[in-house]
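EI: anyone free to look at a 689-residue chain?
SC: sure, send it
EI:
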Amino acid sequence: MSNKEVKAALKSAREAIRNKEYKEALKHCKTVLKQEKNNYNAWVFIGLSAAELEQPGQAKGAYKKAIELDPNQLLAWQGLANLYEKSNQTDVEGDLAGVYQKLLELYESGDKQKWYDVCNKLVELYRKENKYLEVAETWQKLIQKKQGDGAEKAELHQLWKKMIQLLKGSTENQDNKTGQLLLTAFEHALNSADTVPGEDHQNLYKDFIHCLSKFPHETARLEKACNDMMALYPAACYPLEVLCLHFIQSGTLSEEALHCFSKLLEMDASSGPGIIGLGIKYLQEKKYKEAVKSLTEGLQKTSQCPAAWHYLADAQMKIHKHKDAVLSCNQALEALGTLEGPSLRWKNLVLQLKAEALIKIANADAAEEAIKALEQIVDASSNPVVLAIRGQAYLNKGSVDQASKISQELLLSHPDLAESHALEGFIHYSQKNYEQAERSFLNAIERKAETAEYHQYLGLTYWFMGDETKKDKGKALTQFLKAAKLDSYLGIVFRYLGNYYRDIAGDKSRARGCYKKAFELDGADEESGAAAVDLSEELGDMDAALSILNEVTEKASAGTAKWAWLHRGLYYLRTDQPSKAVADLQAALRADPKDSNCWESLGEAYLSRGSYSTALKSFRRASELNPELIYSVYKAAAVEQLLGKYENAIATYEQILKKTEDYVPALKGLGECYLMLARSALENYFDRK
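SC: here you go
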């Protein structure tokens, strides 16, 4: 077959393809290949015809053969691209990317529009596969080519914005290089904007700052962007809010940070980050209640701020709201979980604070939870303070051996650490080894004199120590006063100061003040509340006593605050207000249905009210619960006597006198019952009775 005949066969194949006679075209191509097996055009035509006849495997093979023969010819690459584009198979996408890259190379010096079209297709392919770095690099090449071709500023601006759109989904799992390319795109888009200042430019700046805030290592760039935007848009709160949140998360509060907080609150008094900043300022100034109030309010508006939850938990710990602090720590951990690249430093701080709060709750379940929290701290085993907290958790759990082991290790490895000696002191104190506890707490105070808890426990140690210190509680008083000065929210210290002034110094007025303070700090401290009420009554200040009781009973839910209901019920009983007394004593019994004394008092209240049957039931219930309550048994007999049930009353009186022969009220009642029976017999003419 001559060269002329080959050309004729190829021409016939081209005509057949044009007429969509693909099988005919294949015949002509095969004729050519018999003569010239390396004919480029014949292989391209086979590829095209096979693709149209839905024979993708043969088409792919033909195109690849043509490419092998001449890799720098366009036709085969174009055909292969068309074949892959029409294919439904996902495994060809990697091959298609390679084909597009070759086409870009071939179009580089030729058809610009086709280069742009292929570039767009390649970018879209990478985007579908979430290959964001390749998207960024390819799109940047497109922009550079446009710049080289002298594109207008407005067109370049749109291209940079398109690059931002393409990379927006990448911030959650991108590498640093992609991130840098995204930030560069933002900067170019901002610099190429037409209208500055303007609404579009302002929104673009907001997006840029939002994006920067997700990059923990771009703090300088973030601060610059916020300051630049504030200079351009002085009425916009957004950059100031981001800057405030950045300062909050950084954990270091400079003069600049405090200035930002106050400036933001001037612009928007209801801004979450601004209110949080104010709360942190209060925390620094040791205004703990104000700090809790502001941080709580700010977090209702800006809840996804782990650092703010940590600050709130810290403030709650300072006023000994330990359960609230645990809840705040949980919120901080939840917020850390939703952030990109959670901050390990904050997580460790929150877990440590949570463990400390759980230890203060001081029960076995809380101790177990504290141990679990400490286990999650990275490098916990190399942190002696964390180890000391773990030792306390084991002690609260009742695992004294494990606590002692940690204590011994700490004293050997960190003898100058106050926490090492304090842990040893807590262990000795729990085992009532007061002399050893004293030594340990003195060592802890020597190393950290500003810790109120150490003075509190040294005071308690002196309080419970041997006979000599029992008589002279002066040492205990000194330590309690130091603890109270260092931490004015430490309720237990004020309770023991109350004990000292009441039992040792005999100063009822000062004692009452201490008990009242203790109860204000810890509403669950019933001992202090009851003591404050008792002393108010002894000092003749019933208004103060009732004020405390009314406050407690108003807040109390059903089945709680028994002591307050009982105290107020007895007051009403003494002041001849039996109906009020009945209501309060019933409330006290809901909290403790087995209190025989309370049943006895309720019986008295019913009796005063004239409700004899219910009074009788109450006295009987009291004596059932405690058969030793002679008075309740006597009152039951007295009520039966009042009701004219003389035989029953006589039986009960005799029962009392068997136990206590000289119980005068029973003797008197017995005599009266016999007399009443005799009188009744005479009236009914039963003379011989």
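EI: The domain at 1-129 is CATH 1.25.40.10 (Serine Threonine Protein Phosphatase 5, Tetratricopeptide repeat).
SC: 👍
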